[in-house]
From TrEMBL:
Gene3D superfamilies hit by this protein: 1.10.287.130, Histidine kinase-like ATPase, C-terminal domain (3.30.565.10), PAS domain (3.30.450.20)
Organism from which the protein derives: Falsiroseomonas algicola
First-level EC class: transferase
Keyword Phosphoprotein: yes
Origin superkingdom: Bacteria
Organism ancestry: Bacteria, Pseudomonadati, Pseudomonadota, Alphaproteobacteria, Acetobacterales
Residue ranges annotated for the PAC domain, each copy included: 257-309
The name this protein goes by in its record: histidine kinase
Transmembrane residue ranges: 31-56, 68-93, 99-119
Length: 550
């Protein structure tokens, strides 16, 4: 205690020093000039930090609160410096005044060190006018985008109408082609699509003869780019270009073909297009004369991607209980194993280490299982705009079963899977395909569960993969009672559902249909016996369909 008092006495006692007023000869004018100024400065320096902290409290979004606090501390200590200077006019506590100045020095140096590196960031903070201008531009762009989307939808409707009319009247208009040629050319110039004509050789290479004027409007390229011998694949991404020959050969063999892919515009940007080609006449040597159109469907793809994302989230919601059970299993095993390990160590010490290591291995395995489930949930739940490429069907089935297998088995339903990994690689995108399989499994589970006590046998879902040399198929069959013929004709319509209100979005099978079409495959539904069979048919991947199997 005496030491503390002596220490304080050193800082506060006047000792041998004289008051500062003595140096001013106690001249009243000077005394009150210094005292009045110090009082005013002290009050101002105490007020300013309070005001800064009040602003910081109301503006929680300020990016550098630490800098404000340092400035407030610096100004506050400056005020205390003037306050101690005021006191030393009459009371010579110079040690206290020096300590306050030292604290002020530390804080001011720290503020200076922090401030200089932050100057570029502080200068880069947009001004209010800049933010308002940016918001105004965004609002204008949003309004323009809405207008363009509405115009695109209207033009797409016009295109579909004109195309259907064209297909219905081809036979009749063949005799009147010369008369209608000029009028038809004017109509094509106004279409929101590129209409083209040409010849396809036996190798599937298209040589263009004519291209509509809308080619420049949609792609940005000038019509003189399309010269005899021009290779359309130069405008496509690598994967779509690799499949171009097969697409054209399929059109010649089947009479018509539709494909969706990305097209490179003149400015380097990419748009999604739908390419439909039909055969006008067959030529010798396996060639054909064709006509087709390429329509910009970027907005449609965006809407479809959002619908697919909503469908994934809806499926995840329906599977929540089963997923909770699937995650609870490894967690329970880990808790039990860790408790047993702790008890073994407490009871047997070093002798229990081999058994503890085994339990730790078991905990690690179960943690890996839980992480796999969570990883699938994370990937499944986010939107993905992946291009179709070469993948293994068994991988997609395994991923779907990670999300649904536990829920199906916990419902007492037998799950039989026969999808060998040795099947040929297929053309598809992994996550959208997993979503399609998950939708089919959830529908099968709901159909079986909907029969309730009326069931005479155990519920069963079967997945079988096979290849016939031309394609790979995946059948998903159940014994959930089947689907009436009238309903089968509508199962792939958007928002059509036979489930109770609140238990289905009506988007699952519609998304599955669109997904399979985007893969260049197909999906069909049929009632067989006491259940339903869905068949997914995939194109077999060639070496050009991806750098490797995904």
């Amino acid at each position: 205690m005496n030491t503390l008092l002596a220490y304080l006495d050193t800082w506060l006692a006047p000792s041998q020093f004289s008051p500062h007023g003595f140096c001013l000869w106690w001249e009243p004018g000077l005394i009150w000039l210094h005292a009045g100024s110090d009082v005013a400065i002290t009050l101002a320096y105490l007020s300013i930090p309070l005001a800064m902290l009040a602003v910081l409290r109301q503006r929680r979004d300020w990016r550098y609160p630490g800098l404000v606090i340092l400035f407030a501390s610096f100004i506050l200590l400056c005020g205390l410096t003037h306050a101690t200077g005021l006191a030393t006019l009459w009371y010579p506590a110079y040690w206290l005044e020096g300590a306050v100045k030292l604290a002020t020095a530390f804080v001011s140096v720290a503020t200076a060190i922090l401030l200089w590196p932050l100057i570029p960031r502080l200068v880069a903070i947009p001004s209010t006018d800049a933010l308002q201008a940016a918001n105004s531009r965004l609002a204008q762009e949003a309004a323009e985008k809405d207008r363009l989307v509405r115009d695109l939808r209207r033009r797409e409707a016009d295109l579909r109408s004109l195309t259907e009319a064209l297909e219905e009247r081809v036979a009749e208009r063949t005799r009147r082609l010369a008369e209608a040629h000029d009028r038809f050319a004017r109509q094509l110039a106004e279409l929101p699509a590129v209409v083209y004509g040409g010849k396809v050789d036996a190798e599937g290479v298209l040589s263009l003869d004519t291209v509509s004027e809308s080619f420049t409007r949609i792609t940005g390229w000038t019509p003189d780019l399309i010269l005899p011998g021009f290779d359309w694949r130069l405008l496509q991404d690598e994967e779509a270009a690799a499949r171009r020959g097969a697409f054209m050969r399929g059109a010649v063999q089947g009479g018509a073909m539709t494909s969706e892919y990305r097209l490179r515009r003149a400015d380097g940007s990419w748009i999604w297009v739908r390419d439909h080609v039909g055969v006008v006449s067959l030529l010798p040597g396996g060639a054909a004369e064709v006509i087709g159109y390429v329509a910009d469907i970027s907005a449609e793809r965006d809407v479809q991607a959002k619908a697919e994302a909503n469908g994934r989230l809806a499926v995840l919601g329906e599977m929540a209980t089963g997923l909770a059970h699937e995650l609870n299993q490894p967690l329970s095993v880990m808790l039990l194993a860790s408790d047993n390990a702790r008890r073994a160590l407490e009871s047997h010490g070093q002798a229990a280490i081999p058994g503890v290591l085994q339990r730790l291995d078991r905990i690690a395995n179960q943690a890996a299982r839980a992480r796999s489930i969570v990883d699938h949930l994370r990937i499944f739940g986010r939107a993905e705009a992946a291009e179709p490429r070469a993948i293994v069907l068994a991988d997609a089935v395994a991923g779907a079963l990670v999300l649904t297998g536990g829920a199906i088995r916990s419902a007492g339903i037998q799950l039989d899977v026969a999808v060998p990994p040795t099947l040929p690689a297929i053309v598809a995108a992994l996550v959208p395909l997993e979503q399609t399989i998950v939708n089919l499994l959830v529908n099968a589970r709901d159909a079986i569960a909907g029969q309730g006590v009326a069931r005479q046998e155990q519920g069963r879902i079967t997945l079988v993969g096979a290849s016939d040399g031309d394609a790979v198929t995946l059948t998903v069959a159940d014994n959930g009672g089947g689907i009436p013929e009238a309903v089968l004709q509508r199962v792939f319509e958007p928002f059509f559902t036979t489930k109770e209100v609140g238990k289905g979005t009506g988007l699952g099978l519609s998304i599955a249909y669109s997904t399979m079409r985007a893969f260049g495959g197909s999906i069909t539904a049929s009632s067989v016996g006491d259940g339903t069979v869905f068949e997914l048919r995939f194109a077999i991947a060639s070496l050009q369909d991806g750098a490797g199997v995904a």
